[in-house]
Amino acid sequence: MANLNIDSIKARTFDAIVVGSGMSGGWAAKELTDKGLKTLLVERGRNVVHNHDYPTTNLRPWEFAHGGKVPLDVQTANPIASRCYVFKEDAMHFVVKDHEHPYVQEKPFDWIRGYQVGGKSLLWARQTQRWSPYDFEGPARDGFAVDWPIRYQDLAPWYSYVEKFAGISGHRDGLAELPDGEFLPGFPLNAVEDHFRQQVKKHYAGRHVISARCAHLSKPQPIHYEQGRGQCQNRVLCQRGCPFGGYFSANSSTIPWAMKSGHLTLLPDQVVQTVLYDEHKQRASGIRVVDAHTKATTEYYAPILFVNAGALNTNLLLLNSTSHRFPAGLGNDSGVLGKYVAFHNYSAKIGAVHEGFKDLTTDGRNPAGGGYLPRFRNVFKQETDFLRGYATSFGASRGLVQPPTGLGASLNQQLERPALGPWTVYAGMMGETIPKETNYVRLDPHRKDEWGMPLLSVSVDYDANDAKMKQDFFAQLSEMFAKAGFANIQTHDTGQAPGLDIHEMGGVRMGRDPRTSLLNQWNQLHACPNVYVTDGACMTSTSTQNPSLTYMALTARAVDHAVREAKKQSA
Ligand SMILES: Cc1cc2nc3c(=O)[nH]c(=O)nc-3n(C[C@H](O)[C@H](O)[C@H](O)COP(=O)(O)OP(=O)(O)OC[C@H]3O[C@@H](n4cnc5c(N)ncnc54)[C@H](O)[C@@H]3O)c2cc1C
Ligand code: SF4
User: What is the pTM of this model?
Assistant: First the structure.
């Protein structure tokens, strides 16, 4: 019996455990297995195998039972998920339904999740920009949030490292506020987007319209073919899962790569309930998981743990990992675990038309989605009455005057030579929000889910800074649109709750001082250094750029550190 026990424990003991198989967990698994570590990757959702489990990927529009839309009863039952633009007939199977995983909204918060192998990396819009030196210096400069314990130079080589493997397309724009990366060829702007670029350049020093940078293989390199991925075909049906592996996802890239190493054990359908703490050894020893279907519990052990459950779920897991040493959650000596949650303010849009360029239209699709204006407010110095700034997405297109109607020759003619309206242009704000103690998540003291986890209670809101920034966006973009000759300029405050940006961050922030932060410069818990957190939970501030590239780079850097430390200890 004793031997059986020892054998069973041995079978459940690994060199490293990674919790969560999404964007960042996939990278942790890849890096750990690349370095020869026997790694367990635990995922609460079902397995989604690249190219086997993309049921809609090759469906044509008329093959969808509801024409691609979501039936009304499903919308009504899922008000939160329905607010997300990928919750459509072709991809809704990758989005968590409201009733499946409830949470508590102390204030309105749309929590969009993807519980499956690959997490939200299947669904993302693939926008990938590096942060700049000014982003990492922001909190130190204006004194809001704590200072990052790292600077851009610490992360730059790791940005290069993940960009080469993931495949990022973009142009080398040479901007201090948006450093260039290791780019595959960029996608072009269309004629009206390029017109806006030229007009902005003419009228404003320090403002730039560039092609959006995105995680698509515009020109695959040998490293991408080695992953089994191929050229992006510009279908722009990515949220279904791409049969070509044309965009980066954990499913098409990091997880199969880690599998190939022979060092990975992937465990889907297992909810990690708590990280185990060994009071005697004063370190985390493993995890306790609950089987998603049978509800049976099992423990797994490893000397290195990476928690990559997706920002708020990582908060939930650490808060739920209590012990004699850490009664308020793992590593939570400072009491700031769950606090200083922030997000991106996506609630401001602006639209207009351009009456020119009537002889032109677009042909084909642009996976990058159009143009991007890096932040131009308060970059080099504080110049407005609000803190930080916003980046802007920009696009232009021509729509049909009316949908084709009728039959036969007339329908044919409308399809071949569609009557197009004027160019419409739009821009969207991507505003940085300031992490505050009053924006927090915590465990609901009363309610648990069916896997025995307390419900997460979310209290996150906008503030006066966000309101001022929004007004500035409306004023500046209206002026820029007018200067570019756009007409009928309409601003739109969407009034959306935080969360729909799907860039929630913080709660387990990095910092120099253990009294005000949870993680050190290598993403280790100050108070329990064999636990690493490298998803959005670790973010000290939010910048304006899309965050996932930074999570990936932080993850690769942290694994490198973990393995170097482990080697030192065993030498
Ligand atoms: C529609 C959409 C568009 C987006 N566009 C962009 C974009 O353009 N650019 C960008 O940078 N980002 C974008 N994002 C955000 C991006 O997807 C996330 O930043 C990224 O996926 C986060 O990676 P992660 O590893 O932290 O979390 P996820 O990718 O969400 O992975 C977390 C995984 O952990 C699992 N998990 C959670 N709890 C547990 C538990 N207790 N036990 C076991 N497993 C658990 C989950 O099931 C999930 O698989 C977008 C997201 C969406 C949905
Ligand atoms: S745009 Fe590219 S990555 Fe997206 S589905 Fe098409 S081929 Fe795949």
Answer: 0.97
pLDDT at 1 over 60: no
Residues 476, 138, 108, 69: is their CA dihedral positive or negative?
Answer: positive
Q: Average per-residue pLDDT in the chain?
A: 96
Of ligand 1's atoms, which has the minimum distance to the CA of residue 453? 41
Residue 235: CB within 6 Å of ligand 2?
yes
C-beta of 96 in contact with ligand 1 (< 6 A)? no
Which ligand 2 atom minimizes the distance to the CA of 365? 1
244 lines ligand 2 (CB under 6 A): yes
Q: What's the CA gap between 318 and 312, in Å, rounded?
A: 10
Q: What is the reported pLDDT for 2?
A: 56
Q: Provide CB contacts within 8 A for 44, sequence distance 6+.
A: 20, 115, 269, 270, 271, 272, 292, 309
Ligand 2 centroid vs 216 CA: distance in angstroms?
8
Q: How far is the CA of 357 from the centre of ligand 1 (A)?
A: 40
User: Does residue 543 surpass a pLDDT of 90?
Assistant: yes
| Per-residue CA distances from 18 to 40, 555, 562 (Å) | 6, 11, 13
Count, residues in the chain: 571
Place of tokens 């694994």: 559
Nearest to 460 by CA among 98, 111, 109, 103: 109
